[in-house]
Amino acid sequence: MSQHTSGLAIETAGLVKTFGETRAVDGVDLSVPAGTVYGVLGPNGAGKTTTVKMLATLLRPDGGEAHVFGHDVVREADQVRSLVSLTGQYASVDEDLTGTENLVLLGRLLGHGKHAARERAGQLLEAFGLAEAAGKQVKNYSGGMRRRIDIAASILNTPDLLFLDEPTTGLDPRSRNQVWDIVRAVVAQGTTVLLTTQYLDEADQLASRIAVIDRGKVIAEGTKGELKASVGAGSVHLRLRDPAQRSLAADLLVRALDAHVQPEPDPVALTARLGTAASDDTAAEQAARALNELARAGITVDNFSLGQPSLDEVFLALTGHDTHDSRDADDKKDEVAA
Amino acid sequence: MSTATTTEGRDLAPVSTESLAALLIAKERPPRPSAWSASLTFGWRAVLKIKHVPEQLFDVTAFPIMMVLMYTYLFGGALAGSPKEYIQFLLPGILVMSVVMITMYTGVSVNTDIEKGVFDRFRSLPIWRPSTMVGYLLGDALRYTIASVVMLTVGIILGYRPDGGFGGVVAGIALLIVFSFAFSWIWTMFGLMLRSEKSVMGVSMMVIFPLTFLSNVFVDPKTMPGWLQAFVNNSPITHLSSAVRELMAGQWPADEIAWSLGWAGLFVLVFGPITMRLYNRK
């Protein structure tokens, strides 16, 4: 295992990649501590995949520097390659080959002997619940199975750094949970994971630090707590019985919670984004107080829910535009998989 | 897609995080494979693909048979008096022509393959960089061998009798395969350079038809106009088909062999580095 003096798995400074006129990655600075899951959160086309590809030595940066465990990704690409594994948005395995053949092929390329490669392939397929599908061509696998074989291929040798590029995009909730379990198991053994995702929820579940990236730039970075505090505690969604009471309810909420209140298309519904001003209280406490105020004013609430800030809300708060706008500044690679 | 995923997801065995953890503890890494071993592994991948999709052998079985039959009976009577006499001259040449033509499929398969996710993984492995490409060519060498054996078999059925015997035939085929392996670096270059399968096919045809037809495969160049002779006599395909023809006839054409191998070396030296440059840039 290589140890780097600063304890950083990834360190980038002013990383830039341009595709023609588009600056897909536009001066990204990242510091990823070793042994943690680091989330890179952003919409399609934000530059996540391009950043990962530069760090995994697949693309040459046009500007700036990047080091992986202290090794320069351009000048010492070979050392970097021996420490990292990459799982792309699409399955990075050969679809024409079977699960076993794929793992044996990669095992051999990593230097295992015939016997050792077969043994390791068998063990991994077993651990990933793919023993039955081992002899089937990967093109016949379901989405969840593909992700599993893909991650299995990435840990044939336990990597020091694992890139997971949107590992759960397009998966059903059950398969998604299983991928999360795998990520937790991998990081528990000391591997650093760089996870890109479009879902705040996913970054929240897995990552200890998160960078929010938009139009090729890091627009916010910090622990989950810091990030959430910067966008407020969450949102309260209300459905009233009487549409006539909606504007009164909105006034009350603004006063009581210092919240930003937004009417919904449905005439009885409104959403209040809880502000940061009253952030000593938890979101639940603020919500309870809101309900109280409404009850005292004689407003009947039919339905009530408290939600975490969504990625859309994080974006709105951080950039002043919503996630969809970012598509204008898309980089091609992200868009293809979208 | 999403419904299929859900239903299959339910039947799927759960992930065993305990055994996974046990597997992850092993942190020793074997030494990286040698250039040759990595290339052979990629060659094995090519063979596995043939195993899963055997139809792709059509171009190295049916196409060569067609070539032998067509040209033997089309030109045989007019050029040499009878098909049986003509095939003595034609077979080594048509063998060279067909195998060299088949090499162009390498470009197509590189082009379709390179866009797939698996290439990102190959390119992020700490291995000898050209081994991916060499692997293709090793797999293709197997296809060339199959094509050669098929054509010789058909030729022998039609009356071809090589004076060089088994040894001469094997030597001729070996030279042909070495040349084709080297020549294929042109196609790996086009496969990486051009954007679509169709453009690869188009460009390949533009190169391969003049190159193979403007040679001594079908007739002796003596009857050609002077300017054409100048081209034909110096074409690598002419050198190669002369060398193969004479080897199979039991002679040792040192000059022609040297010319063929010289051209082969030149192809690797020029197109190999261009291919790898494009590969690293992808």
UniProtKB/TrEMBL annotation, chain A:
Source species, domain of life: Bacteria
Pfam families in UniProt: ABC_tran
All residue ranges annotated as the ABC transporter domain in the record: 10-240
Keyword Membrane set for record: yes
A cellular component annotation (GO) from this entry: plasma membrane
Gene3D superfamilies membership: P-loop containing nucleotide triphosphate hydrolases
Subcellular location: Cell membrane
Annotated membrane topology: Peripheral membrane protein
GO molecular function: ABC-type xenobiotic transporter activity; ATP binding; ATP hydrolysis activity
Keyword Transmembrane listed: no
InterPro entries named among the record's database cross-references: AAA+_ATPase, ABC_transporter-like_ATP-bd, ABC_transporter-like_CS, ABC_transporter_ATP-binding, DrrA, P-loop_NTPase
Record-annotated membrane-spanning stretches: none
UniProt keyword terms in alphabetical order: Antibiotic resistance, ATP-binding, Cell membrane, Membrane, Nucleotide-binding, Translocase, Transport
PROSITE patterns for the chain: ABC_TRANSPORTER_1, ABC_TRANSPORTER_2
Stated family: Belongs to the ABC transporter superfamily. Drug exporter-1 (DrugE1) (TC 3.A.1.105) family.
Name of this chain's protein: ABC-type xenobiotic transporter
Organism: Streptomyces curacoi
Native organism taxonomy: Bacteria, Bacillati, Actinomycetota, Actinomycetes, Kitasatosporales
From TrEMBL, chain B:
Primary site of residence: membrane
Keywords from the UniProt entry: Antibiotic resistance, Cell membrane, Membrane, Transmembrane, Transmembrane helix, Transport
Pfam families: ABC2_membrane (PF01061)
Alphabetized InterPro entries for the sequence: ABC2_TM, ABC2_TM_bact-type, ABC_2_transport, T7SS_ABC-Transporter
Domain of life of the organism encoding this protein: Bacteria
GO BP, one annotated term: response to antibiotic
Ranges for domain ABC transmembrane type-2: 55-282
Residues annotated as transmembrane: 57-80, 86-108, 141-160, 166-187, 199-219, 257-279
Location within or outside the cell: Cell membrane
Membrane topology category: Multi-pass membrane protein
CC per GO annotation: ATP-binding cassette (ABC) transporter complex
PROSITE patterns with a match to the protein in the record: ABC_TM2
Recorded GO MF terms: ABC-type transporter activity
Family membership: Belongs to the ABC-2 integral membrane protein family.
Identification of the protein by name: Transport permease protein
Organism annotation: Streptomyces curacoi
Lineage: Bacteria, Bacillati, Actinomycetota, Actinomycetes, Kitasatosporales
